[in-house]
Amino acid sequence: MPCCMPGVAAVPALLVCWSSAAFIISYVMAVLAGHVEPLVPYISDTGTKPPESGVFGFMINISALLAAITMYIRYLLIEKQNESSHFVRSSCNMFTLCVGLMGCTGMGIVATFQELAVPSVHDIGALVAFGSGVVYITLQSIISYKSCPRWNTHFVCHIRMAISVISCIAFIPMIVFASKISMTKIDWTPGEKVKSY
């Protein structure tokens, strides 16, 4: 079983390191090129203009692939644990995997269609990525509680659920504020009017 092979645990660590590098490298490139202000730009703003857009797109697509592999490994791990414990239905585990893979697809869309080049597709990709991510994290938290105490400690379950709650809370204002704005450019000058379409 691949989930029992040594070294598989390196995949989630690689995902975190690679994704962090993707955001940091594109941010540094965008700031040094003068394409964004250094103080807390949107993640997508740091991958809008060349040359950082190419780096951002490439690295985020690799992140989406690593995330999909990580989710598949988690799926296999739960299936293996479930053989002896029967703590969750296999269909629930498969549904959770599918939700996670939808989020990875959304990440790929965000990486491929830049924020200002094709804004509606980019926004749909972001909505799918973040929305599916929140649902995936919540479902994994529930599965963790069901597998407790044999496969997880209560502490780990509580941490996972806290991350789920924070993600849900953060997702709501993201939707509200994203629906109120329409990005047509990054650089604005004082007194400039917004184009209405």
Can you lay out the helices and strands and say which pair or pack?
Layout: H1 10-32, H2 52-85, H3 90-112, H4 119-146, H5 154-180
Helix pairs in contact: 1-2, 2-3, 3-4, 4-5
Mean pLDDT: 88
Secondary-structure-based class equals mainly alpha
Largest sheet: none
* Poorly predicted tracts of residues: none
Protein name: DRAM1 protein
InterPro entries: CWH43_N, DRAM/TMEM150_Autophagy_Mod
Transmembrane segments: 54-73, 94-112, 124-143, 155-178
Subcellular location: Endomembrane system
Commentary on this structure:
It is a single chain. The protein has 197 residues and is mostly helical. It has one domain (9-183). Helix content is 69%, strand content 0%. It has helices spanning 10-32, 52-85, 90-112, 119-146, 154-180. Helix 3 (90-112) runs antiparallel to helix 4 (119-146). The longest helix has 34 residues, at 52-85. The protein starts with 9 loop residues before the first helix and ends in a 17-residue tail after the last helix. The mean pLDDT is 88.
Characteristic terms for this protein:
197 residues; mainly alpha; 5 helices; elongated; DRAM1 protein
What's the short story on this structure?
The protein has 197 residues and is mostly helical. Helices cover 69% and strands 0% of the residues.
